[in-house]
From TrEMBL:
Classification via Gene3D superfamilies: 2.60.40.1840, 3.30.2010.30, Neutral Protease Domain 2 (1.10.390.10), Peptidase M1, alanyl aminopeptidase, C-terminal domain (1.25.50.10), tricorn interacting facor f3 domain (2.60.40.1730)
Catalysed reaction equations from the record: Release of an N-terminal amino acid, Xaa-|-Yaa- from a peptide, amide or arylamide. Xaa is preferably Ala, but may be most amino acids including Pro (slow action). When a terminal hydrophobic residue is followed by a prolyl residue, the two may be released as an intact Xaa-Pro dipeptide
Name of this chain's protein: Aminopeptidase N
Naturally occurring in which organism (per UniProt): Microbulbifer yueqingensis
CDD domains associated with the record: M1_APN (cd09600)
A Gene Ontology biological process term: proteolysis
Enzyme nomenclature, EC number: 3.4.11.2
One Pfam entry name: DUF3458_C
Length: 870
């Protein structure tokens, strides 16, 4: 069944108060609710039946205003409960039973390592009790949790208002959340947990207690998250004027979790991997990811909770905006350029692929079968780019006026993407009507840009043609409103002034299918620097020559575009290598690429992390996304060849780089140190491509002596990829021996093997799934092993006999029985079958077909597979 945005209607009934009472039992938890319900005056006349959502619930009783409702008056279905109503306002009491122990979907109330926890977004609350489970029903919640003393910590949203002992030896705690919220923001946690505590004083002087809860063994891994939280709280006050609003803010780490984390009011629940870190056990990447996710969830308190979504088609209203906010936060805390490069790389690989595939959808979708499938890169990352474009078009101050108005106007409401855009317009007297198409049209726009220079008149012009390929249900697209940030470089590499004010950078507003922008008084033909900072989520085509790209790499002052010039050059070189390979010619690496990489490596002025990014060849996934017909074998051959050539030719510079950026300073996860480690480890990985014993020894020495996980894991990955069998196996064993008790490190150990192009063979991946630490019921383990293989091991996954695809299909089918959300996500690589050359394409398609015919699929998996087969 498909749900359509156009069918939206306001709720028939509102719930002013929600009182919940839980008696926790692993195999039979009793839930009692008391809902203060009122006819919605905005919904029209009469008293239609009250429709409540409820899935997999054991209904025990229903009462209205204290009187049992007899079963003539209500109807139960697998999807919910419909009750006849004879009055406009009443108190509904329901009792039902649920079974947390059997809940492997990790949605609703479930157990993780003996700890009770919940995940209600998007539609998990209906697995707890019967309720109008839709975000536009906002209610004030009071929650009482009763449990045995084996669960000393009992948490829910808001403030604790009561606690005590029961006569039977159990105890209870009651929580009250003063802010009305939709059911998807409800949370409950019960367990034997320790916590760390800190406090934060808000701008207006209120003191907030901050607590992070984990199992005792992880209590030493909370400090980084706590520091990140305090930074995020300060940043949101300074940059958006947003203060926290409760007296307490709690975070809980949970090992079994479908996504990264969840912004439940006052009680954020996190995937352990996204909150726990220590220098010995977490890589720099993990430290930075934790900082970003802690901030993301915290920022939702305003962009998501105080102002929430009217319906799930508006998901990007909170997610796109909040990703934009967390990206800016991370940029302010670390290197802005590198953050941008990382985000754009992800967008260009995964989001562009999604936007060109069978599941392509607009930032505000028109329809869905299962909302869980729409927590996508398009909603999150492209949605963030859409907000960023508004920021670029309006400028910092005007954007802030818009966000102030948005928060003020809609505080306490459930609203739409349209309301967000309207606030931006109203606060600034601007017209974003054409811009709104970014919310309704799917697909990645393409800009074809050409230029012209008339020496006699001194006029330079840029002609921009925009187009957008068709996507499911959308054949023709109307032109987008695209901010295109540009500069013009003269032959000395200087930025030309673009107007009388002397500004050297300008945001062109592309609105037509074809449009020409003219610049007067230009004395020589300039080189355009286009889409600086990646000013819009589009593909830019301009016929840069290799020489022009080299020039940009030397003189471009926008770091993002400097990196992008390097990527374009590498892409051209890899294309040529792929052609050589297919034609059976000897491959020859472009000398321009070689000299470009050499000069980047020798440049000690540049931020080392930017150097590391520039030295990294586009991944196989990026190369695949950018080609019309993917030839996996040629991509792998070209990339391996280029890597080997670079390693051989740049050997001395790489070694110099390795030593220059090694140091004995104590570990700190700070931008400067992270940059040095990143470049050092990039050099090490290249050096070991040569497979020379002296470099493998260097890797071994780093592995043996590393004082932090970043250096240790980088050395291990290098040994696994390039070392002898013996070296690789003994390092893997040693690492496991040392870290087997640490869940996060074991996940890394799994991932590193499954994604190794050299050693992550299908046999090894199957063996890892038999490892005692592997658990099909744990999404992190699944993502490390199966996801590592299917998403990050391009070489082995695309093996010519199609066995990689068959394997994935098998696992997806098995997982669907346990956890539909994870299964539907994991199947993604197979949905790209149309992009591949004949043989692989057929094998991929066959694997997808196999999933379809395997029996009854969950709604989640069915939607993805059925849409991808056509
Ligand atoms: N709102 C959460 C976040 O962005 C993600 C929750 C996703 N849940 C789900 N079932 N898909 O931080
Ligand atoms: Zn979010």
């Amino acid at each position: 069944r498909t749900i359509y945005l156009k069918d939206y209607r306001v709720p028939d009934y509102l719930v002013d108060q929600t009182r919940l009472h839980f008696e926790l039992q692993p195999s039979g938890t009793l839930v009692r609710s008391e809902l203060h319900i009122r006819r919605n005056p905005a919904a029209g006349e009469g008293l239609p039946p009250l429709a409540l959502d409820g899935v997999e619930l054991e209904l025990l009783s229903v009462a209205i205003d204290g009187r049992e409702v007899d079963d003539q008056q209500f109807r139960v279905s697998p999807e919910g409960l419909s009750i006849d109503v004879d009055r406009p306002e009443f108190v509904l009491e329901i009792a039902n039973r649920i079974h947390p122990q059997d809940n492997t979907s990790l949605e609703g109330l479930y157990l993780s390592n003996g700890m009770y926890c919940t995940q209600c977004e998007a539609e998990g609350f209906r697995k707890i009790t019967y309720y109008p489970d839709r975000p536009d029903v906002m209610s004030r919640f009071t929650t009482t949790i009763v449990a045995s003393r084996d669960y000393p910590v009992l948490l829910s949203n808001g403030n604790e208002i009561d606690r005590g002992d029961m006569e039977d030896g159990r105890h209870f705690v009651t929580w009250e959340d003063p802010f009305a919220k939709p059911a998807y923001l409800f949370a409950l946690v019960a367990g034997d947990l320790e916590h760390v505590e800190d406090s934060f004083t808000t701008a207006s002087g209120r003191e907030v207690k901050l607590q992070i809860f984990t199992e005792a063994r992880n209590i030493g891994k909370c400090d980084h998250a706590m520091r990140s939280l305090k930074k995020a709280m300060r940043w949101d006050e300074e940059v958006y004027g947003r203060e926290y609003d409760l007296d307490i803010f709690m975070i809980v780490a949970v090992d079994h979790f479908n996504m990264g984390a969840m912004e439940n009011k006052g009680l954020n629940i996190f995937n352990s991997a996204c909150v726990l870190a220590s220098p010995e056990t977490a890589t720099d990447t993990a430290f930075q990811r934790i900082e970003a996710i802690v901030a993301h969830e915290y920022f939702h308190n305003w962009s998501g909770n105080r102002v929430t979504c009217r319906d799930w088609f508006q998901l990007s209203l909170k997610e796109g905006f909040t990703v934009f906010r967390d990206a800016e936060f991370s940029a302010d805390m670390n290197s802005r350029a590198v953050k941008r490069i990382e985000d754009v790389s992800m967008l260009r690989t995964a989001q562009f692929a999604e936007d060109a595939g069978p599941m392509a959808h607009p930032v505000r979708p028109d329809s869905y079968m299962e909302i869980s499938n729409f927590y996508t890169l398009t909603i999150y990352e492209k949605g963030a780019e859409v907000v960023r474009m508004i920021h670029t078009l309006l400028g910092e101050e005007a954007f802030r006026r818009g966000s102030d108005l948005y928060f003020e106007r809609h505080d306490g409401q459930a609203v739409t993407c349209e309301d967000f855009v309207k606030a931006m317009e109203d606060a600034n007297g601007v017209d974003l009507s054409q811009f709104r198409r970014w919310y309704s049209q799917a697909g990645t726009p393409v800009l074809d840009i050409s230029d012209d220079f008339d020496a006699a008149s001194g006029e330079y012009s840029l002609t921009v043609r925009q187009s957008c390929p068709p996507s499911p249900g959308q054949v023709e697209k109307e032109p987008f409103h695209i901010p295109l940030k540009i500069a013009l470089l003269d032959s000395a590499g200087k930025n030309l002034p673009l107007d009388t004010s002397g500004a050297t950078e300008q945001v062109l507003e592309v609105t037509e299918a074809e449009q020409t922008f003219r610049f007067e008084g230009v004395s020589e033909k300039p080189l355009p620097s286009i889409s600086r900072g990646f000013s819009s989520p589009v593909k830019v085509r301009y016929g840069y020559s290799k020489e022009q790209l080299l020039f940009l790499m030397r003189f471009e002052s926008d770091d993002f575009n400097r990196w992008d010039a390097c990527q374009r050059l590498a892409f051209m070189a890899m294309e040529a290598l792929q052609q050589d390979y297919r034609a059976g010619r000897d491959m020859r690496l472009s000398p321009e690429l070689l000299s470009a990489y050499r000069s980047v490596l020798q440049n000690r002025e540049l931020d080392p992390s930017l150097v590391a990014e520039m030295l990294s060849l586009p991944t196989a996934q990026v190369l695949a996304e950018q080609t019309d017909e993917i030839d996996a074998e040629a991509i792998v051959a070209a990339r391996n060849f280029a890597e080997a050539e670079l390693a051989r030719e740049l050997e001395e510079d790489l070694l110099a780089g390795y030593h220059a950026f090694s140091n004995d300073r104590p570990y700190r996860p700070e931008a400067g140190d992270i940059a040095e480690r990143r470049l050092k480890n990039t050099c090490l990985a290249y050096l070991c491509v040569t497979e020379k014993p002296e470099y493998l020894d260097l890797a071994q020495a780093q592995f043996d002596s590393a004082g932090n996980m970043t250096d240790s894991a980088a050395a291990l990955a290098t040994l696994v990829d390039r070392g002898s069998d013996e070296q690789a196996e003994s390092a893997l064993q040693e690492f496991y021996r040392c870290w087997h008790a640490d869940t996060q490190v074991v996940e890394l150990w799994f991932a590193l093997q499954a994604s190794s192009s050299q050693r992550g063979s299908l046999d090894r991946v199957r063996a890892l799934m038999q490892h005692p630490a592997f658990e099909l019921k744990n999404p992190n383990k699944v993502r490390s092993v199966i996801g590592g293989f299917a998403n990050r091991n391009f070489t082995q996954f695309h093996r010519a006999d199609g066995k990689g695809f068959e394997f994935l299909a098998e696992q997806v089918v098995a997982l669907d029985r346990l956890n539909p959300q994870v299964a539907a996500r994991l199947v993604t690589p197979l949905t790209r079958w149309k992009r591949y050359r004949a043989e692989l394409s057929e094998k991929m398609h066959a694997a997808l077909q196999m999933v379809m015919e395997s029996g009854e699929l969950s709604r989640d998996l069915y939607e993805v597979v059925s849409k991808s087969l056509v």
